[in-house]
Amino acid sequence: MKNKEKGIILIEVLIVFGILVSIFSITFITFKHIEEKKDLEKAVIKISEVIDEYTLKSLSTGMIYKIDIDYLDKNIKIKTITDKIEETINLPTKLSYLVPYTINGSSQLIDKLSITTTMDGNLSDSFTTYILDYSGKIKYRIATYTFQENKILKINIYKKISGVSISKKELLKYHELLFSVEELNNEWRKQ
Predict the structure, then answer these.
(1) Both ends of the chain: CA-CA distance in Å?
(2) Phi, psi angle pair for 36, to nearest 5°
(3) pTM of the full predicted structure?
């Protein structure tokens, strides 16, 4: 009888342990998902706000600012024309950031970019930033458009809402197709 009771107690303990491990796992996954979502939103806000803030500052003060984007080190440094650092913005470190860019007629992915503001509130160059989640899949796209004739900077933010998951390896080809295949644009929702 004692062995039977010990066996039942052992089974009960294992069942309770299994339930606790399951609850802990679900809680951990839920918190990780919430943290990732907050990091994605924080990155979108920081990137778009710094560009918007310093182009407007250039327009109102007539000063030119250098914006050094270093997605490898996960920061953006704003400098005066004399290279004095005005501000450093740190981005969420668990995310990845990439910019498809054409250099000498060849498209490539870069993680560092230097641009300047103009005195009329624009940027020296247009660019698109893709933000990838913890697992390296594209989740957001921030596109800046400079319209020199109108002297207007436009920032569009898009969230990937459907379609296949795109990784870093597939990003350059996907970016090139994005503007030529209408169905791909339906995978994004403008924020």
Answers:
(1) 67
(2) -65, -45
(3) 0.84
Residues 98-144 have pLDDT tens digits of 999 877 777 889 889 999 998 888 898 889 999 999 999 999 999 99
Q: What is the CA radius of gyration of the chain?
A: 23
Residues in the chain where the model's pLDDT stays below 70: 1-3, 7, 148-151
The two tokens of residue 155 are 């920032």
The rounded distance, in Å, linking the Cα atoms of 174 and 181 is 10
Phi, psi of 20, deg, nearest 5: -65, -40
Q: φ, ψ for residue 144 (rounded to 5)? A: -105, 140
What residues pair up with 101 in beta bridges, in sequence order? 108
